[in-house]
Amino acid sequence: MSLVTRVAVLGAAGRMGQEVCRAVAEAGDLDLVAAVDLRPPPVPDGVVVGTDLDTLRRAGAEVAVDFTEAGAARANLAWCADHGVHAVVGTTGLRPADLADLAERFAASAANAVVAPNFAIGAVLLVRLCELAAPHMDGVEVIELHHDRKVDAPSGTALRTAERILAAREAAGSPPLPPDPTTQEVLAGARGGEAPGGIRVHSVRLPGLVAHEEVVFGAPGQSLTVRHDSYDRRSFMPGVLLAVRAVAGRPGLTVGLEPLLGI
Ligand code: NAD
């Protein structure tokens, strides 16, 4: 790649896409060359704007950042693999079968891809810290808190946190978590949802919140709380830019930010 990396943003008119456009435009070593969306994205003059992927070819993009929706991302990524454009993907909703397909496509391509369901470095660290704590504590519950427009519960990140905690306990040979003592749930749902391993996950929805997660571990006489707060979408940008800068050097498909952070 050249000294300044030529970056395209797919979904450039969206909430995340606009933030990525700003972050790329402000980075001295990156050049925002193309913005693709079905709606007109608010980007500076000189950026090639379009509604289809040929926009990337016209702009000579080297890396495409995708924050669209799962259906669009599948098609966008196939195009990137076929056309030798590196891809950095934050769009959620890709299934394990999609990731398997992407791994094959990018293994056969001159281009690489980084797919991360959460680009907030603090959130990635939270999960890693929970994996460290999980085998040493006797109980754990996950609380995720989001803005009042989120329609699904619990968040994918909370569910993955619970899965990784369970996997860390199993890998360490920890006993199963103690059974829930509740025999009378006065309000249905008061004990939250039950994730694999019996880990309880609680969802809070309130105006003013953005994206927050708190994991509380318990053991006799003590508790340990690990918490991460995303106050606005800027929290995702260091992770996105890290992936944009790293993707050319990571052959094939990389899933998650952990390998890029060396954790
Ligand atoms: P949004 O609805 O504001 O933006 C999506 C944009 O994609 C829209 O402007 C839409 O017009 C555009 N789009 C849809 N299909 C397209 C296509 N075929 N070609 C080009 N543009 C297309 O959504 P958002 O809040 O910006 O979130 C986008 C995605 O990013 C979601 O999947 C969300 O879950 C995910 N997300 C991921 C992270 C992360 O850290 N990985 C963080 C926040 C959001």
Number of domains: 2
Q: What is the H/E order?
A: EHEEHEHEHEHEHEEEEHEH
Instruction: State the separation between the terminal residues, measured CA to CA.
Output: 26 Å
Instruction: Tell me the name of the CATH class of the largest domain.
Output: Alpha Beta
The value of Rg in angstroms is: 20 Å
Chemical compounds bound to the protein: nicotinamide-adenine-dinucleotide
The major pleated sheet works out as: 7 strands, parallel
CATH topology of the largest domain: Rossmann fold
Shape estimate: elongated
- The CATH homologous superfamily of the largest domain is named NAD(P)-binding Rossmann-like Domain
**Which residues form runs of ≥5 with pLDDT under 50?**
none
Portion of residues within helices: 25-40%
Q: What is the tally of helical segments?
A: 8
Structural class: alpha/beta
